[in-house]
């Protein structure tokens, strides 16, 4: 049973690795779709040499509509059309790419939720207690999301993640002497959106020592101060003199 489960998990993980965010290639065209927060959609294409140095035109239709609407906002690469940006949220999309009158690529009934990229968290705020912090941000009006806060000190190699289904996450066991980096993002849940979605961009990194916001966390590795070195040196010299005196007294 355990083994079967393990195999299933492995298959799911591998499947995820293989399908995740790979542009789809067909008929000399490769396509990438990004749906920004159910507000705007960007369809991007790369073409093989066969179609290079040609302006492709993009036609689309939402939900049941046929792809009759011409793109009104192209994005360009080296002066040629390379993408189209348009308003579309949780819709189905049918689109086609044409070179002059020839159709070079078509896709029907794409569920745009499969390509969701949520907005990055806004209004991120920190409430400190002794050795814990609660990080909150504004929840997006979209279900099926997970909020992720990562933190690390300069002694940590890796970012440490904490997640929750609402943006209210408490992180315990922090050292009040240490300065920590924090960053936040929003990810989609695989069970709801599948594996081709994108995480949001990271929020800007902030630095905190206890409940104080700092500009950076660079000042932590302490070199012993000159005063410290002086005291230790004096102590060592003092001990050596003492030992010498004892030795002299014994041998006298
Ligand atoms: C793809 O490119 C090849 C040449 O590299 C061409 O013969 C073929 O017709 C192209 N296919 C499409 C659908 O444009
Ligand atoms: C197009 O090619 C660039 C560079 O090779 C790559 O980064 C990008 O993901 C490709 N986009 C698509 C839609 O295939
Ligand atoms: C492609 O479209 C762009 C923008 O409309 C235009 O500047 C460029 O000259 C076009 N290239 C060709 C080969 O038609
Ligand atoms: C930011 O958070 C505060 C409370 O934490 C809330 O009153 C305010 O409306 C939020 N602003 C936005 C833009 O969500
Ligand atoms: C976060 O959760 C805690 C306890 O679960 C609650 O006391 C607090 O009011 C919440 N904060 C926000 C901003 O929702």
UniProtKB/TrEMBL annotation:
InterPro entries for the chain: CRLF2-like_D1 (IPR048651), CRLF2-like_D2 (IPR048648), FN3_dom (IPR003961), FN3_sf (IPR036116), Ig-like_fold (IPR013783)
Subcellular location: Membrane
Membrane topology type: Single-pass type I membrane protein
UniProt signal peptide: 1-20
Key words of the record: Disulfide bond, Glycoprotein, Membrane, Receptor, Signal, Transmembrane, Transmembrane helix
Cytokine receptor-like factor 2-like D2 domain mapped to chain residues: 118-210
UniProt-recorded name of the protein: Cytokine receptor-like factor 2
Name of the coding gene: CRLF2
Residue stretches making up the Cytokine receptor-like factor 2-like D1 domain: 35-86
Domain of life assignment: Eukaryota
């Amino acid at each position: 049973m355990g083994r079967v489960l393990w195999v299933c998990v492995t298959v799911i993980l591998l499947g995820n690795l293989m399908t995740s965010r790979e542009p789809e290639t067909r008929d000399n065209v490769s396509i990438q779709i990004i749906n920004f927060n159910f507000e705007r959609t960007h369809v991007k294409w790369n073409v093989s040499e066969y179609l290079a140095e040609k302006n492709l035109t993009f036609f689309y239709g939402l939900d049941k509509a046929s792809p009759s609407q011409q793109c009104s906002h192209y994005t360009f690469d080296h002066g040629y059309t390379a993408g189209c940006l348009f308003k579309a949220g949780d819709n189905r999309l049918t689109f086609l790419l044409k070179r002059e009158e020839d159709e070079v690529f078509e896709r029907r009934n794409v569920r745009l939720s499969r390509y969701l990229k949520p907005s990055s968290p806004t209004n991120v705020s920190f409430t400190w207690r002794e050795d814990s912090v609660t990080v909150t941000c504004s929840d997006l009006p979209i279900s099926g999301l997970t909020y992720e806060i990562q933190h690390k000190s300069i002694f940590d190699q890796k970012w440490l993640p904490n997640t929750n289904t609402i943006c209210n996450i408490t992180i315990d066991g922090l050292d009040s002497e240490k300065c920590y980096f924090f960053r936040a993002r929003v990810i989609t849940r695989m069970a709801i959106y599948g594996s081709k979605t994108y995480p949001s961009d990271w929020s800007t990194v902030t630095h905190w020592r206890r409940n104080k916001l700092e500009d950076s966390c660079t000042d932590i590795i302490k070199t012993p101060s000159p005063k410290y070195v002086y005291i230790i040196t004096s102590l060592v010299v003092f001990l050596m003199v003492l030992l010498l005196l004892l030795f002299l007294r014994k041998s006298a």
